[in-house]
Amino acid sequence: MVCYNPKKLSLMKTKALGFIGGGRVTRIILQALQNKKVAFDSIAVYEPNTEIAAGLKKSFPEIATVATPQEAARQDIVFLAVHPPVMIETLGNIRDAVTAETVVISLAPKIPVVKMEELLPAKKIARMIPNATSYINKGYNPITFNSAFTPEEKQVLLKMLKKAGKTMEVEEKMLEGYAIVSAMLPTYFWFQWKKMEEIAMKTGFSETDAKKVIGDTLKRSLKLYYTSDLSPEEVIDLVPVKPIGDHEAEIEQILETKLLGLYEKIKP
């Protein structure tokens, strides 16, 4: 792998990454870096679940799986890849391992920068809401920085994070909205695409052809909806037969109730 030259990152002297939590989001970020052949002097990951840690190490042999969160927190850039309910406890656990020079990036909703500033000695703290499509370097990852970052330092960090895909600075108050509308968005549809593949095969398609037809149709449908000069209503009206039309109101109600309810739970 090609090393990410620390001289080009001299603003923060970035040589080592730390991850606290070795689950899905850490795997996504590591995969994005690997796809782009980006490496660092060291990458330390703390994951208390030994099975998950072993699986991560198998996929990314270059990382070091460490025994304590403090070990991971002693790196130049530390990603907090834990769920909101354990974030405060995690911040307390790493407080003495983090220094004023450490760059801390939370990947979780709900816990605001100001709370992290209260609990950590680190001066530079950011929050990012990652997207699963970063796995293929096509992410849509909003990030917010605290006031300690200079414009130059932001650009240095963004240059690295953009290896995962589109990464853009946004206001912190928008991060939870991005979690609902972007980060979790694919989960509202992926299971439906899988079911459509199963239905297609029952109508005579091979698995390969089913995936191609459905995938190609979805890509073209998105382009039609978002790039044509038609209104949403006009696009919808292009297809006269709507086999599940009787259930649309029910589906819309489920989406609104579940997603806005979750949004209220994850807001700071």
Give your account of this protein's structure:
With about 270 residues, this protein is α/β, with parallel strands linked by helices. It has two domains: about 1-170, Rossmann fold, CATH 3.40.50; about 185-265, no CATH class. The chain is about 45% helix and about 15% strand. The protein has eleven helices and ten strands. The strands form two sheets. An eight-stranded mixed beta sheet has the order 5-4-2-6-7-8-9-10, with helices on both faces. Strands 1-3 form a two-stranded parallel ribbon. The two termini are about 40 Å apart. About 30% of the residues are buried. The model is unreliable at about 1-10 (pLDDT under 50).
Key descriptive features of the protein:
10 strands; 8-stranded mixed β-sheet; 11 helices; alpha/beta; about 270 residues; Rossmann fold; globular; two-stranded parallel ribbon
Topology overview:
Elements: E1 2-3, E2 16-20, H1 24-35, E3 38-39, E4 42-46, H2 50-59, E5 64-66, H3 69-73, E6 77-80, H4 87-94, E7 103-106, H5 113-119, E8 124-128, E9 139-145, H6 151-161, E10 165-169, H7 175-183, H8 190-202, H9 207-227, H10 232-236, H11 248-266
Parallel strand pairs: 1-3, 2-4, 2-6, 4-5, 6-7, 7-8, 9-10
Antiparallel strand pairs: 8-9
Helix pairs in contact: 7-11, 8-9
Give a quick rundown of the structure:
This protein is of the alpha/beta class and 268 residues long. The protein has helices at 24-35, 50-59, 69-73, 87-94, 113-119, 151-161, 175-183, 190-202, 207-227, 232-236, 248-266; strands spanning 2-3, 16-20, 38-39, 42-46, 64-66, 77-80, 103-106, 124-128, 139-145, 165-169.
